[in-house]
Amino acid sequence: MKATVSIGRSPENDVVINQPDISSHHATITTLEDNEFMVEDLDSSNGVYVNGYRIKSSKVSLADQVRLSANHIIDLEVIFGLKEGSVLQIPEEQNKKPNDKDFTDEFLHLEKVYNDYRKDKNRIVQGNQRKQVIIRMGFMALPLAIQAVTKEIALSGSTILLGGLAQLIPGGNKHLDKLEELNDNFMVRFVCPNKSCNQILSGRSWAVWHNTGECPKCKAIFNKNKL
Ligand SMILES: [Zn+2]
């Protein structure tokens, strides 16, 4: 049994995996002790993953899952001659029957819908807050303006000021219209990705739905952990 096993696409490796996403010299695995190994990525293009996390080098045991690139799971027991069989394990996803409740990929697209909505909403609300400040400043200036000038001029002055304010206030309604339109649009788009369900999901954030993991109505699955 070799202490260090090299893995890659090139024929000079101890374990040859002839796949386009495997680098010619992809990784090495070194035995440290019984059931303890050091996995090292040899600057491969598509990486080495231990239990789903990309690593540069990592200590692993036989209980850990070591994967090269997207879906080549290697069997350490076979590599080190502890077991007969194929070096490559069949990924679990390929073993599973297609799940007709799996809407996890479709649900991921809703994150952008949600984030865009939040951004647009903030822009409208902040734009309105600026307008409100201008209106408040207008009202504060009013008594000062009255004190500063004679009665007649004050009357005409406040008329001008009030006229100006009246022009600003309809702007407040416009911002409500914009918000309403945005909310309507969001309610139509932020729905269960199962087309035969279309349950409205607004009212909770994308992250909360992702955490909840499923549609309350049709039980479509939103989170890979729930598969
Ligand atoms: Zn649904």
UniProtKB/TrEMBL annotation:
It comes from the Bacteria. It comes from Chryseobacterium kwangjuense. InterPro entries: FHA_dom, SMAD_FHA_dom_sf. This is FHA domain-containing protein. Transmembrane segments: none annotated. Residues 5-55 form the FHA domain.
